[in-house]
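C-alpha cells
________________
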Amino acid sequence: MRDPELTPELLLRAYASGIFPMSDSQDDPEIFWVDPQLRGILPLDGFHISRSLQKTILKDQYDIRFDTDFSSVVAGCAERDETWINQRIFDIYQNLHLAGHAHSQEVWEQNELVGGVYGVALGAAFFGESMFSRRKDASKIALAYLVDRLRLTAFTLFDTQFLTPHLASLGGLEIDRQDYLRLLSVAVSGQADLRALPRQQTAYGVVQRNTQTS
C-alpha cells in the first residue's frame, strides 16, 4: 500500500497499528507500508553482550551521546549501497525528532560521529529503525547503551521490525504478528520517556545491568 501524504501524525498512527514505512531505494520518492507476518523484537531483559563486546565497552574509549545530532545519525544509516531511506523519509523522521518522538543514540570519537542507532518512541514502545558503524562494534555499543536507557526509563517493547542474523546474535527474537500486536497494544498505552534518565550511564553500569538480565 502506497501513500502520497506522509505526516508525523499519520506515521505515529501507523506505528501504533503495527505498520511502518519504507522506500525501495534512496532515489525512489515513493513510500510503501510494511506489515510483516513475522516481527523482530529485542527483549529488553535478553540483550546479549559477548565477552569481546564487554571488553570494548569497558575500554570506555568513545563518547556516548543521546539526541545531539539526530540528522547525522539518519544520514549515516543511509550511507550504504542499498537503503530504504529516501529524502521524504529523512525529512519526516527529522520532523518526528523535533516533535520529541524520534531519538538517536550516538557513538563519538572526539568530534567524529562513528556509530549510532535511531528510532521512534511511542508510549512505552520503541521502534528501532536503523543503525550504522564506522568503527568496529560502534553500532553494537550504541545498541547496548540504548537498551540500557530503554530499561531505565520504563520501556517495555523494543521493536526491530525484522530479525537479522546480527540482531539474533544480540538476543533478538522473531514472533508472529498476533503476538506482536498484543505486546504493542500494551506498550503504546504505557508511559515512558527516553529523556528522563534516572541515573548517569557509565560503561561499567551498562555492562553490569545487561549482564544481570541477559
About this structure: The two ends are 38 Å apart (CA to CA). Strands lie at 20-22, 32-34, 38-41, 63-66, 102-109, 112-122, 125-133, 157-161, 173-176.
